[in-house]
Amino acid sequence: MILSKFVDELPIPPILKPRWKDKVHTYYEVNMTEFKQSLHSELNETTVWGYEGNYPGPTIEVESGEKVLIKWINNLPENHILPIDYTVHGAHVDVPEVRTVVHVHGASVESESDGYPEAWFTKGFKQVGPFFKKEVYQYDNNQQSVTQWYHDHALGITRLNVYAGLAGFYLIRDKQERLLNLPCGDYEIPLMIQDRSFHKNGALYYPNQPDKPIKGLETSIVPEFFGETILVNGKVWPHLDVEPRKYRFRILNGSNTRFYRIKLDSEQLIYQIGTDSGLMEYPIGIKKITLAPAERADVIIDFSNLEGKNIIMKNDAPAPFPDGDPANAVGIVMEFRISLPLTSIDTSVIPAYMVPFPKINEQLASKIRYLTLNDNMDKYGREFMLLDNKQWDAPITENPKLGSTEVWCLINLTTDTHPIHVHLIDFQVIDRRPFDVDKYNKEGVIHYNGPAIPSEPQEQGGKDTVRANPQQVTRIIMNFGPYTGRYVWHCHILEHEDYEMMRPYIVIP
């Protein structure tokens, strides 16, 4: 089914209004429901799941330091719209088919409000998971201005719940950001990029069997899933009409598995001003931005002097990444049409300097952990991935002390790049270094066969998700806090996360 490109306008998610606000707290309620939405004008309306009747959900905007309470409410039907795989941990037949728990990705938050995968709940909180603690989550937002996002995190069905539509933006703002005179208001737009496939009737398509079907087994776990179309903010290949001026875009890769390597067909520079964890020290001008699932880039695109032109945002990331078929890239993301008259003189700037970015000193690390990313086969002959060769239920082995600094060396023994996300904290990427995988597999020793590669210019800032490339050791450094308790770290390819590539960790007092 071939859908026309650039026929639908880019939707911009609404800003969610709080239920009430007093001197101490701001309170929101967010309902998850099933509804129909037009994802492309040539398709029948698609049944999706969303927050507050929107896919993607409304944008939640808060101030740095604002104490926010959110009651996430599951009002979804009892049956899933996508095929469940009961052979996956956490999704066996003894748990309700539809269950949700919300994680604000990038949030520094108490563990009871982090959206732990086994803290799920059903409609009306009738049934809850073993780690469910409270109905109303608290977010202290003790971070500088940053682009975060919220999405479902229920054990064993995260890939299905997010694919069904459960995702939205969560933005923290602060005074420093306002002083920088960045493009704002109508000229600041979030872009959630995702891929989807459809049945002829407009319904979402998700495979219910791997490529080599397993007889007698109803299964939907696949090592990766790539949709045939690209959606931005819930529209397939949309267009955005802009004025000839600077715009700020907060770009998120919200796909399950697909990586994006984005560029503009005008060959102009994209000015990156922020990473996952907020503003960078200095902006950088780059032609291409690579985003793994869950990575964000805060950018400014200057459309000045381009009146009447159309500019296409393209993608050339192979799938799977980095060594998959470039033909699987789906080369078009969206179109910008510089077709609107300039409403006022553009006085916004691309600042020369934004915020200090103090590097964490490696000498401060009290512990260095060596953690492998592994590829395995299950009893049905299906591929599944592990962290440190341990399954979800294995005893917890990562237990950093509150306030301590650690270096984690991610040893990738697989053929894929894995976006590794650590909850609670921001980290810094130190470097990546190639090593001999065969030698490691035989002898268990890291034999480096090339020099260390420093972190990329687009990673020069705080991160919460890092691309751990095949045949490389990726080193990240982080300080654990300000909360104690149980969190998770995992691969953010959702198909991997759901099938064992996730581990709990505990910050101990």
Automatic annotation (TrEMBL):
<feature type="domain" description="Plastocyanin-like">
    <location>
        <begin position="44"/>
        <end position="92"/>
    </location>
</feature>
<keyword id="KW-0167">Capsid protein</keyword>
<dbReference type="InterPro" id="IPR011707">
    <property type="entry name" value="Cu-oxidase-like_N"/>
</dbReference>
<protein>
    <submittedName>
        <fullName>Spore coat protein A</fullName>
    </submittedName>
</protein>
<dbReference type="Pfam" id="PF07732">
    <property type="entry name" value="Cu-oxidase_3"/>
</dbReference>
<dbReference type="InterPro" id="IPR011706">
    <property type="entry name" value="Cu-oxidase_C"/>
</dbReference>
<feature type="domain" description="Plastocyanin-like">
    <location>
        <begin position="375"/>
        <end position="507"/>
    </location>
</feature>
<dbReference type="InterPro" id="IPR045087">
    <property type="entry name" value="Cu-oxidase_fam"/>
</dbReference>
<dbReference type="InterPro" id="IPR008972">
    <property type="entry name" value="Cupredoxin"/>
</dbReference>
<comment type="similarity">
    <text>Belongs to the multicopper oxidase family.</text>
</comment>
<dbReference type="Pfam" id="PF07731">
    <property type="entry name" value="Cu-oxidase_2"/>
</dbReference>
<feature type="domain" description="Plastocyanin-like">
    <location>
        <begin position="99"/>
        <end position="176"/>
    </location>
</feature>
<keyword id="KW-0946">Virion</keyword>
